[in-house]
């Protein structure tokens, strides 16, 4: 087509010219199945390129804010001394800004190299799956500038508040240690529960009660890491569920045989006589355009037997749904596209043969995760077409031991256009949609694990820096090493146990949001979160906590009491 021309007008004229010669109807590139797969795939990539960076940048903003804020809190005395000696606020803020820019610069450099490497390998992945002759990955300068700018903006947003605290910090106030924000009783003490706990446990409760904002930030960071881990594993659960329902309950045939053209019903008998065929069921497929009010959609009506046992329809409750003797059954996704429900009447325009148009009531909606189709009983579909008992192919249940000979026999039949084995269809499904998603899943889980460890370890490490003098004082007063370690690590463990349920709720919301934006006409991903997903996320968080606790405990056990307790002048 020439640039600027309208496909609809050309299609109308083509159909008018070719109708006397048996033309089946022209269609635009946007309706071609291969083009639909690619366009939906690229749309999903665009969604992922928006959603996942926002999640990870949000976590990065949080980490920078926590790290820089607590770093400034631990260096408040040094900041006060520098201000007292005449350093301007601008110079001190610039010092910490340079630290942030150094961190961000290293991250941007590593990210650009990793992004270029991953993009190159991703283009090879698509070349392999979609059989492209070539697919070159290029890093455009505009995208490069945009990525760096967004990263710098996230860093500025995460550290702006901390830098402002450096500016407004008064020297006379900062030279003294920061006093506790609250001296009152903690809530367990108010209810008389304090007598049930040991002295170190009381210290944990009092510290949490006096610094609730700090505890809340730690809980949010750990919860975010838990949520990202759930996002990384939810796709595996959904894919396995799709395969189980689609190829276990609905499409149970071993082979699908399609004919070159509609054939007489007796052709099925020839297939059933082949060695290795245990059972066969016919089907008829007719291209149609379905209309309801202002909505229309081009698809195919598949006709099958009312008592079909190989290729079945299933309802919302995953129960078998027989094609009605009168009426049409739509997939749930097609019902959403056309905005119809059971009981509405559709206008069906057949796009082959005599092209009849009929008003047909919607009998029910079926549940499917792959494709968008309509279904009728085989006899009703043939009556719609004003034809005898014609079929386009058959679903076969076969003995796997006879598959090689059966393939040879089918390939020798001139009327047979092709065969599809369910086993190969499942394999192909995993090699396309499933494997691509699992590659994303691997990287998400990897980065989420790094974030989980980073959040937990940073929280523990900075808390140790803040309370090193306090813990050393307790050691001097007679507390044992394990008691001192328990005061710090018990608080960390408590925050982790509180953060895991919060992470479950946040993870469920993130999974629902992402899956909603990844739905397509070609396949739908169900929001299915197995208990194993929750268990995996919690296990990684707990392991990160234990590893961080071990590293911090080592530092506590080797704490130099003299250097920590000596007075700074």
Report how far the terminal alpha carbons are from each other: 82 Å
Order of helices and strands: HHHHHHHHHEHEEEEEHEEEHEHEHHHH
What fraction of the residues are assigned to beta strands by DSSP? 5-15%
User: What are the segments in which pLDDT stays under 50 over at least 5 consecutive residues?
Assistant: none
Helix content: 55-70%
Strand order of the largest sheet: 2-3-9-6-8-7
- How many domains? The number is 4
Largest sheet: 6 strands, mixed, barrel
Mean pLDDT: 80
**What would you report as the Rg, rounded to the nearest angstrom?**
33 Å
Form type: elongated
The number of helical segments is 17
| Estimated structural class | alpha+beta
Topology, number of strands: 11
What would you say this structure looks like, in words?
The chain is 61% helix and 14% strand. By secondary structure, the chain is an alpha+beta fold. It has 4 domains: 1-31, no CATH class; 35-179, no CATH class; 211-251 and 423-569, no CATH class; 277-398, Barwin-like endoglucanases. Helix 9 (212-250) packs across helix 15 and helix 9 (212-250) runs antiparallel to helix 16. The radius of gyration is 33 Å and the shape is elongated.
Compact description:
With 569 residues, the protein is an alpha+beta fold. The chain has helices spanning 7-18, 33-74, 76-84, 89-130, 141-168, 171-174, 187-190, 199-210, 212-250, 267-272, 332-338, 378-385, 403-411, 422-476, 481-517, 531-557, 561-565; strands at 255-264, 277-292, 295-304, 313-314, 320-321, 328-331, 345-350, 357-366, 374-377, 390-398, 416-421. Helix content is 61%, strand content 14%.
